[in-house]
């Protein structure tokens, strides 16, 4: 079945920052990143892409992402709007943005882990109650003996589980080569250590 040109969408996918997804650089200095540099790189990419493919300039532009892109998408969108207002060329037909399963606050992420894991049935009601009571709802950064004991039990129960995607095994790849720089226990330690 053929589609008319006005019935077709275009999708350009960017993995950012360098080193995530399929993105890479031959220059090790490119891996020294922060959010500001990532936004600048993404904005530069968007402008250069439309300069290279001006036939797409009239198409509506939407910026989207998930997970940590909850920080990038709104900030990149703001840069695009500022550029439009300042007359930066090419003139983009920016229409909006959206994010899914966004990470907008690490404290919220950390605080949501224990209830999430409990609701998924990955820890018992008793362990959940022990964690809730000992931490008093603040599930991180405590040295109280009851908290430490309960965190160890939590780690033992969830150590082999990919807490970002509970139905998928851990998978860390760099350019198609598996690496084991962080195991499951280290990831739990990162959130609850």
Describe this structure as you would to a colleague.
There is one protein chain. The chain has 193 residues and is mainly alpha-helical. It folds into two domains: 5-102, Rossmann fold (3-Layer(aba) Sandwich); 106-192, no CATH class. It contains six helices and four strands. It has a two-stranded parallel sheet with strand order 1-2. A two-stranded antiparallel ribbon has the order 3-4. Strand 3 (173-174) and strand 4 (177-178) form a beta hairpin. The longest helix is centred in the first third of the chain and has 18 residues, at 35-52. It is elongated and about 60 Å long. The N and C termini lie far apart (55 Å). The model is unreliable at 173-185 (pLDDT under 50). GO terms for molecular function: serine-type carboxypeptidase activity. It holds the Pfam family Peptidase_S10. Belongs to the peptidase S10 family. It comes from Amborella trichopoda. This is Carboxypeptidase.
Descriptive labels:
6 helices; Peptidase_S10; AB_hydrolase_fold; 2 domains; Rossmann fold; 193 residues; mainly alpha; two-stranded parallel sheet; Carboxypeptidase; 4 strands; serine-type carboxypeptidase activity; two-stranded antiparallel ribbon
CATH domain class of the largest domain: Alpha Beta
The tally of helices reads: 6
Strand residues, percent: 5-15%
How many structural domains does the protein architecture include?
Answer: 2
According to CATH, the fold-level topology of the largest domain is Rossmann fold
Major sheet: size, sense and barrel closure? 2 strands, parallel
Could you tell me the radius of gyration in angstroms? 21 Å
Which whole number gives the mean pLDDT?
80
Question: What portion of residues is helical?
Answer: 40-55%
């Amino acid at each position: 079945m053929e589609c008319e040109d006005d019935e077709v969408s275009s999708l350009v996918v960017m993995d950012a920052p360098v080193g995530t997804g399929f993105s890479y650089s031959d220059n090790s200095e490119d891996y020294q990143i922060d959010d500001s540099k990532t936004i600048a790189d993404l904005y530069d990419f968007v402008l250069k892409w439309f300069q290279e493919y001006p036939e797409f300039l009239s198409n509506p532009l939407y910026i989207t992402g998930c997970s940590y892109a909850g920080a990038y998408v709104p900030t990149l969108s703001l840069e695009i709007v500022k550029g439009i207002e300042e007359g930066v060329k090419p003139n983009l037909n920016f229409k909006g943005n959206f994010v899914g399963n966004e990470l907008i606050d690490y404290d919220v992420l950390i605080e949501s882990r224990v209830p999430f894991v409990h609701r998924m049935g990955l820890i018992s009601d008793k362990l959940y109650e022990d964690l809730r009571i000992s931490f008093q709802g603040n599930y991180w950064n405590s040295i109280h003996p009851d908290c430490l004991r309960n965190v160890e039990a939590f780690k033992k129960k969830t150590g082999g589980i990919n807490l970002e995607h509970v139905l998928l095994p851990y998978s860390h790849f760099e350019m198609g080569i598996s690496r084991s720089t962080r195991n499951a226990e280290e990831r739990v330690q990162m959130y609850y250590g």
